[in-house]
Amino acid sequence: MNAIPAQEIKRRGITAVDALLENGDVHVIRNNRAQYVVVSEERYQELLLAEEHAALERVRASLEEVKRGKGRRFKNAAEVLRAIDELPAE
């Protein structure tokens, strides 16, 4: 894990993170636990794009299920909420 103590950032400033970012995401350790993650702007944009693609894939999969007749119709929002409450816990 690419990590740096928060105290080191406080002492040296953000330049303490710059060199570490060349090796990937940087976990900031505070109170002996990874508390934050610093990523480059490029990596951040990649994560946003991946999240958007994953959301689109979920929508596509849902639409395919509806096409195959696996979808359910509800009369109102209360029915939807009830159905969600009845889903098995993960």
Low-confidence stretches: none
By DSSP (H or I, 4+ residues per run), the number of helices equals 4
From the helix content, strand content and strand pairing, which structural class follows?
Answer: alpha+beta
Summed over residues and divided by their number, the pLDDT gives a mean of 94
Order of helices and strands: EHHEEHH
Distance between the termini: 29 Å
Computed Rg? 22 Å
Number of strands: 3
How many separate domains make up the residues?
A: 2
What helical percentage do the residues reach? 55-70%
**Largest sheet strand order:** 1-2-3
- Taken as a percent bin, the fraction of beta residues is 15-25%
Gross morphology is elongated
Largest sheet: 3 strands, mixed
What does the model show?
This protein is α+β, with helices and mostly antiparallel strands and 90 residues long. The protein has two domains: 3-39; 42-85. The protein is built from four helices and three strands, in the order βααββαα. It has a three-stranded mixed beta sheet with strand order 1-2-3. The longest helix has 27 residues, at 41-67. The protein is elongated, with a radius of gyration of 22 Å. The mean pLDDT is 94.
Quick recap of the structure?
With 90 residues, the chain is of the alpha+beta class. The protein contains four helices and three strands.
Write the layout of secondary structure elements.
Elements (H helix, E strand, L loop, with lengths): L2 E3 H7 L2 H7 L4 E5 L2 E6 L2 H27 L9 H9 L5
Parallel strand pairs: 1-2
Antiparallel strand pairs: 2-3
